[in-house]
Amino acid sequence: MSQETAPGHYARKQILSPSRLIAWAHRRRFDTALRLSKPFADKKVLDFGCGDGTFLAMLMRQSWAPASAVGAEISEDLVDDCTQRLSNVPALTFVSTQELDDPEHAQMYEGVFCMEVLEHVIDVDSVLDQIGRLVASGGRILISVPVEIGLPLLVKQTARRVAGWMGVGDYPGTTPYTSRELCAGLLAGPSQHVARPVHVGQNGEKFHDHKGFNWKLLREKLGARFDIELTTASPLSWLPPQLGSQCWFLLRLRR
Questions:
Q1: In terms of CB atoms within 10 Å, which of 71, 127, 175, 252 comes out highest?
Q2: For 157-201, what is each residue's pLDDT tens digit?
């Protein structure tokens, strides 16, 4: 984060985490996002599920910054916080995700980011349909999701258990796996392998945690709607997605 920009609550828990491993992994995620954002230079972009605005604040200070950027979040409190805290970042505004249904947003964005969001969504198809309505003809979409199957699942669950003992981050609230569910996750293919728990937030919205999320199943849904131009991983881009902690998809809208 820039010194003149106050970090949000996600940044404080992630890239500024007291755990060196957590901080490194999240910094690498943002580095990957910034690298993959270069095709959106001088364009109008939207960050769907922008969190505390950390990524957009970083992006708008790059030499390849978009002409303008909009961050969207479901929580009005978060929208207000981002608006106030990042008011000094030029060409950056924030809206609620409900506002994106207004006609003025239809096909208005040459680039849409949706990072670390879809794993929490109950109705993924509806969100993908909404994103498709927001992208301009010929526009691109950058999506990232966590890898929660295969070997990374075992590594992550171990790291979460240790982080929980240390009181770091939100990891004590992650739903645990039974031994049978863990085996199903290690061997998972492109179909739903375990039941996903549903939680209810303070605003009444239902959401998933990371348990049971399957990036291969999402890839099937994305391929049915968009042209997948690139699939890569972080924190180490030279590893295949099945060995990374996050999987990234660069998509082009199919008209």
A1: 71
A2: 887 777 666 666 554 446 889 999 999 999 999 999 999 999 998
